[in-house]
Design a protein that fits this description.
mainly beta, 44% strand, five-stranded antiparallel sheet, 9 strands, Jelly Rolls, 1 helix, 12% helix
Length: 137
């Protein structure tokens, strides 16, 4: 019986942690935390992807996107919105050329950047890759 409980415990642990081992292309939004600088390459999705934006000092927050140089920004529509910890919309930007730019005065706290969009006129997934730039002043 003890081995049966151990096997059940192991099976539950694997089931609970399975999203961590998901196939490439899966967008795990629970652990997307932006840091100052340039993010790793992201894949644009038609459903919203939410990033945590931790802010430890008051100032001006700059958030922008950049599509990869090898991709055509003319075929990429992107929408971005910045929310505070109370889920109130602070700023947003929409662009059909693969770029967004948000500038907002912030105080210390947790913020969220939500991004969604689509690659227009192309089935090539590489046309929907981008990086996020984050800076403070």
């Amino acid at each position: 019986m003890n081995r049966g409980i151990q096997a059940l415990t192991l099976a539950l642990a694997v089931a609970i942690t399975a999203p961590a081992f998901a196939a490439p292309g899966h967008q795990d939004t629970a652990n997307k935390i932006l840091q100052e600088g340039i993010s790793s390459t992201q894949q644009l999705a038609s459903t919203s992807v939410r990033y945590q934006v931790p802010v430890d000092r008051a100032g001006k927050l700059y958030l922008s996107s950049e599509h990869l140089a090898s991709d055509s920004g003319q075929s990429m529509a992107i929408e971005a919105a910045l929310y505070n910890s109370a889920d109130q919309l602070l700023a947003s930007d929409t662009d059909n050329s693969g770029h967004f730019m948000i500038t907002e005065d912030v105080t210390p706290g947790q913020y969220y950047l939500e991004i969604k969009g689509s690659a227009l006129g192309s089935v090539n997934e590489s046309n929907s890759r981008y990086n996020i730039h984050m800076g403070f002043e």
